[in-house]
Design goal:
2 domains, five-stranded antiparallel sheet
């Protein structure tokens, strides 16, 4: 007989802890707003997971990542329901994780998410490439490069997440790293969010005449020329397969600007 209820009576973490304490085996189906997922347990351990009815982000990746995404989404949910169907399932075993491990990681992710929201308060913000890199060398890992390739100045963060099959958390985390590397900037005005960047100066305008009528447009300013660093090198981007590592700037060979070259 399945165990079922709502999160306003027994929250998600309490449901998982109860199943773990009793060493239950079966499938836990959880639903909250537009999010739905299944967690598979064997003797109180989480051994598998799948998702549906949510952004496709967490459907990909390894099972441990999927479990983290599910627990993160449902941690603290005050609306939703659960159904536990006991018995062995045909779901392949992809992980062997305790409920405590899963919930600890979910709480850490929630803390990081709150920090990300302070930096990136809206998914309607549009990232764009900076016109000039800082002198020196910028190192990006392959995932950061994958995100950077879809930054076109038109897509907002939500659209980028959909295009790359990333969750809101994952796309914001990637943007934080790209912001720290100073290869992108966020267009606050495009999101229509007042007060996010009050210190930003208003764009310069100029008056023009079109077909005998006066109009106002943004003034096109010439971009400052790129300056070499102290060693005569230009800004470059290096793509690293194993994560970002700082390197010393290399002297320029021929062309100025940014180049992307994979590590060996």
């Amino acid at each position: 007989m399945p165990l079922q209820g709502t999160f306003d009576v027994l929250d998600f973490s309490a449901v998982l802890e109860l199943l773990a304490e009793r060493g239950m085996t079966g499938r836990l189906h959880v639903r909250s707003r537009s999010f739905a997922a299944n967690l598979f347990l064997a003797d109180g351990m989480i051994v598998g997971a799948d998702q549906s009815e949510h952004q496709a982000a967490a459907v990909t990746g390894d099972v441990a990542q999927r479990v983290q995404e599910i627990c993160f989404e449902l941690l603290g949910a005050d609306r939703g329901s659960f159904e536990f169907h006991p018995g062995r399932s045909n779901a392949p075993v992809g992980v062997n994780m305790t409920v405590k491990e899963a919930m600890d990681e979910a709480r850490q992710r929630l803390e990081e998410w709150q920090e990300l929201q302070e930096l990136i308060p809206s998914l309607d913000l549009q990232p764009r490439l900076v016109t000039e890199l800082d002198p020196g060398q910028v190192t990006l890992d392959r995932e950061q490069w994958r995100v950077l390739t879809v930054v076109d100045g038109r897509r907002n963060l939500r659209s980028i997440g959909r295009a790359l099959n990333l969750s809101d958390f994952e796309v914001c985390r990637a943007m934080r790293e790209l912001l720290a590397a100073k290869v992108i900037e966020l267009d606050v005005r495009a999101a229509g969010i007042a007060g996010l960047n009050d210190s930003e100066p208003s764009p310069a305008t100029e008056h023009i005449t079109i077909n005998g009528k006066r109009a106002t447009r943004l003034r096109t300013e010439a971009q400052p020329e790129a300056h070499d660093d102290a060693q005569g090198g230009h800004a470059t981007i290096v793509i690293s397969p194993n994560g970002a590592q700082r390197r010393e700037a290399a002297p320029s060979r021929a062309a100025a600007g940014a180049t992307a070259t994979p590590d060996e």
